[in-house]
Give the backbone structure.
Amino acid sequence: MKVLIVEDEFVSRKLMQKILSPYANCDVAVDGEEAIQAFKIAWEEKEPYDLICMDIMMPKMDGKQALKKIREMETEMGIKASDEVKIIMTTALAEQKDVEETLKEGVSWYLVKPITKQKLLEQLRKLALI
């Protein structure tokens, strides 16, 4: 499995890497702009991501904007909805409004911080990634 971890906070980024590295090759990005670049490069190299774990609140471009752009890029590339990259949004925002906004844009799942190994691995199983 190939995973992109998009997180601006160092400690959260390291935790995600530690949890996911036994199951996947992990790349990291620190904001939405880097996430979009990494997503594009992975497709150009014909090695797309299976999963993107992305924070919502980040500098430059937030996770909601990046999610929307990634889904637009997939549509432009002719990728069927069933073949889209799985995206798990990770955030401290637990408000219903934020959940609904990301669901409309095509998020696969939504995890509220603090992220635990148990919660994350449970979602990977539900998404049939492990």
